[in-house]
Specification:
Shape: globular
Radius of gyration: 28 Å
Largest sheet: 8 strands, parallel
Helix content: 40-55%
Strand content: 5-15%
Distance between the termini: 17 Å
Strand order of the largest sheet: 6-5-7-4-8-13-3-14
Length: 788
């Protein structure tokens, strides 16, 4: 359908649009025209992706000066879905433009959309593609594509030691422009096979001229990767972070470094390797080391080392080493200090740092220090200054390039130490970081861990807000918006949480606080061994499994708690009683095992046997898996999924937010727990034709401080009678809900309420409001799946 929002014609590839989609587009338009940032919450299953893509691809027609769309996702699966939806949107848009004889540039019609992921996922080389880890794949790729490796292969003249796909890209593809198309992983791989071009480097090259770029958050938020991948993107680009409810944690992780005792042990091996290579080069190619020294004296950027080597071979060079782990505005534009210019002096300097950190990690008690104190002690002991520490990452990058180190995976421990030193030297005078040492793990087993922890999430995303004129954060679970924007340190032009328009009540949220014996249910630590609580939770799952058809998903607060509950349930015969009704599958920390369990869970639902999937909040299933249709007719969250509150890093972050942001500890912990709970229960509804039951099973959910932080679209459906229920009441409500929702429904009943035609959108544009059914009216509507 086509409709107008202001002066912009929207090309929407479906016959109807939801009212919340229309409202979302209006907010997007406001943000783009104001050249500001926005944070928008939109209900799960209401077409957020197609809304964003339809509006922006239409807006680019009316506003040709608008830059490319940079769409950031979490997973490869989400990237594939975005590319498929984009192809549908652009095909419909271009069809309408042709019918209307609209004169637009060829560039706007011939959209080039590129999805970028890791080398291992985009590799055609038989050995590299089978690497066990991303780091190993990167290292193997470098051994085949580095300039010196290719020079040696040319001298051998036998073709060994090079990648034919990389050579094909260098010979033909590095200056080529991809034909219009939508290049997800499969299409990039197919295109690479046809042209004999490396898909990974082809995708990276295409970022410069593509109309739409789809990739992971890390390519913009992690300074080590962003400087390598995203440094050429224009300010006019539109950045969208989808599923942005955990971006604060992504930013924190990108600027934090953890060092373990075995990491420092491996560093000695790395330093020995570098020392041996330096000795070897002094004996056979001292000029190379001397050239590096002179370059550092002149203050030439280390990123030019590999580029010059490539240019000497007649090709355009690009550094393949990760950059410094500091933000762009904090990169030091100075010459490298004299005490680390010579290769052997720098290796000696790193060795002293490693020994100092090793000595620190022999302490047998926990300590937390201000980075200022730790930095001063380190400077006094090593007789150095912060400037030398700041240059460690860049200096190591220069050295491994000069020494032609191929196996970068083996150098990861030394890179971590260099990153630690660089971050400490750069931010050691600020209050945004903390130094925390723990000699044992949570179970008391000796495992020394030294952490340089970033406490301020705004540090990581601030450069993105400063660099691009419009950044949109969106998700179905980021309430309350004002708290989230405060944590990320920005003032959005647009901040709105949209409700779900319904002609029927397609979700049934309930808070179950008591069992049939009226004993309160809670996952509090002091109640975890209470057999009455364990039994009540088991009875809740049994009763729901008896009456809920097909699939049911149960989330626990942690793997430890899930294992404890399963062991108790096994002793109480709860597991066997569940198995009488449905099959049981369990998520584990192992990705392969969990994927297999998920596949078998879906097969059990498809064949009619039904299944219960036991999962963990904050796990893989909670974040990236959809249980649409019969795969998830009910979701149960057992307990409030708080973070591990004994974590010293979390305590330090809470203290920082209390002092710097005036955010109470209880407010943040509740906010974080409720966004995780919302993510879990949101798995049950993936479209308006879907329906399901949401059960929050813990007495603490009844409190307004927890319940009030649920997204508005869930709160709108949470009836007062469903706030403090026991098991019997919840099961009765679930039976009635499922009976009603299983009935067929005519789509005509949704028109004008949950589905809008072009005429109704025009009426909204003119100021007319839509009718909205109350909960009482929704209860009177017996509905089910859409019938055409």
């Amino acid at each position: 359908m086509k409709f107008n929002i202001g002066d912009t014609t929207i090309y929407f590839p479906y016959p109807y649009v939801y009212p919340e989609q229309y409202e979302y587009m209006k907010e997007l338009k406001h943000a783009l025209e104001s050249h500001g940032h926005g944070i928008i919450e939109m209900p799960t299953g209401t077409g957020k992706t197609v809304t964003i893509l339809s509006f922006i691809m239409s807006y680019q027609i009316s506003q040709p000066d608008v830059g490319k769309l940079i769409y950031c996702t979490r997973t490869v699966g989400e990237m594939t879905k975005v590319m498929a939806e984009l192809e549908r949107v652009v095909a419909y848009r271009n069809k309408c433009l042709e019918e209307d004889n609209v004169d637009i540039s060829k560039a706007k019609q011939g959209v080039i959309a590129v999805g970028l992921t890791t080398r291992r996922n985009l590799c055609l080389h038989p050995d590299v593609s089978m690497a066990d880890s991303r780091e190993e794949a990167d290292s193997m790729c470098r051994s085949l594509t580095a300039s010196w490796a290719r020079s040696a292969a040319i001298e051998r003249s036998d073709g060994s030691g090079v990648c034919e796909y990389y050579e094909g890209y260098r010979n033909e593809g590095s200056d080529a422009v991809l034909p219009p198309g939508f290049y997800d992983i499969d299409r990039l791989m197919e295109f690479g096979k046809q042209r004999k071009w490396c898909p990974y480097y082809t995708a990276r090259h295409a970022l410069n001229f593509a109309n739409v770029v789809v990739y992971n958050y890390q390519y913009l938020l992690d300074p080590k990767i962003a400087g390598l991948i995203s440094n050429q993107l224009a300010r006019e680009s539109i950045v969208v972070f989808d599923e942005a409810h955990n971006i604060d944690n992504v930013c924190i992780d990108a600027l934090s470094v953890n060092l373990r005792k075995d990491t420092l042990g491996k560093c000695n091996g790395n330093l020995t390797t570098l020392s041996n290579k330096i000795s070897d080069y002094k004996a056979r190619d001292a000029a190379r080391l001397r050239e590096e020294y002179e370059r550092l004296v002149r203050g030439i950027s280390t990123t030019l080392v590999e580029q010059r080597t490539e240019q000497a071979m007649g090709e355009s060079g690009v550094s393949e080493l990760l950059g410094a782990p500091v933000l762009p505005q904090d990169i030091v534009e100075e010459t490298v200090p004299g005490n680390i210019r010579r290769a052997e002096h720098f290796v000696s300097f790193l060795r002293r740092i490693v020994e100092y950190l090793r000595e620190k990690m022999t302490i047998q008690h926990v300590f937390q220090e201000n980075p200022k104190l730790f930095l001063n002690q380190m400077q006094n002991t090593l007789m150095t200054d912060a400037k030398s520490l700041r240059f460690c990452s860049e200096r190591l990058k220069s050295l491994v390039t000069t020494l032609e180190v191929e196996n970068l995976a083996e150098m990861t421990p030394l890179q971590l130490v260099s990153d630690f030193a660089t971050l400490l030297g750069t931010y050691g005078r600020s209050d945004n970081f903390a130094i925390i040492f723990e000699p044992t793990d949570h179970s008391g087993i000796p495992d020394p861990l030294l952490q340089l922890a970033c406490l301020d999430a705004s540090l990581g995303i601030k450069p993105v807000f400063a660099r691009f004129q419009t950044v949109i954060l969106t998700s179905g679970t980021i309430s309350p918006l004002n708290l989230y924007s405060k944590i990320l340190g920005f003032s959005p032009i647009v901040a709105r949480s949209l409700s779900m328009s319904m002609e029927r009540k397609c979700i049934c949220p309930m808070i179950v606080s008591r069992g049939p014996d009226q004993v309160s249910m809670t996952s509090k630590f002091i109640s975890r061994d209470d057999l009455s609580v364990v039994r009540n939770y088991g009875n809740l799952v049994i009763e729901l499994a008896t009456h809920v058809p097909d699939g049911m998903v149960v989330f626990f607060t942690s793997y430890v708690y899930m294992e404890l509950m399963i062991s108790y349930w096994d002793e109480m015969n709860v597991i066997n009683r569940i198995l009488d009704k449905k099959l049981v599958f369990i998520e584990t920390p192992d990705i392969t095992e969990s994927s297999l369990a998920l596949d078998n869970y879906r097969r059990a639902c498809d064949c009619g046997r039904g299944a219960v999937f036991l999962c963990v909040a904050r796990g893989k299933v909670a974040e990236g898996i959809d249980f649409d249709g019969h795969y998830g007719r009910a979701v149960v969250v057992i307990g409030v999924p708080f973070q591990y509150t004994e974590s010293r890093v979390l305590r330090a972050r809470l203290e920082y937010m209390r002092l710097a942001l005036q955010i109470k500890e209880s407010d943040y912990l509740s906010f974080d727990a409720m966004r995780q709970a919302s993510q879990c229960i949101g798995r049950v509804i993936r479209s308006k034709s879907d329906y399901g039951i949401m059960v929050l099973a813990d007495k603490r959910f009844v409190r307004n401080e927890k319940r009030g932080k649920l997204p508005p679209w869930i709160l709108d459906c949470l009836e007062d009678a469903h706030v403090d229920m026991d098991t019997d009441e919840a099961v009765g409500t679930a039976r009635r809900f499922l009976k009603d929702l299983a009935q067929p429904m005519q789509k005509s009943t949704a028109l004008g309420i949950a589905l809008l035609t072009g005429r109704e959108v025009a009426e909204l544009e003119s100021g007319k409001s839509l009718p909205k059914l109350s909960l009482n009216e929704l209860r009177k509507v017996t509905t089910g799946a859409f019938v055409e």
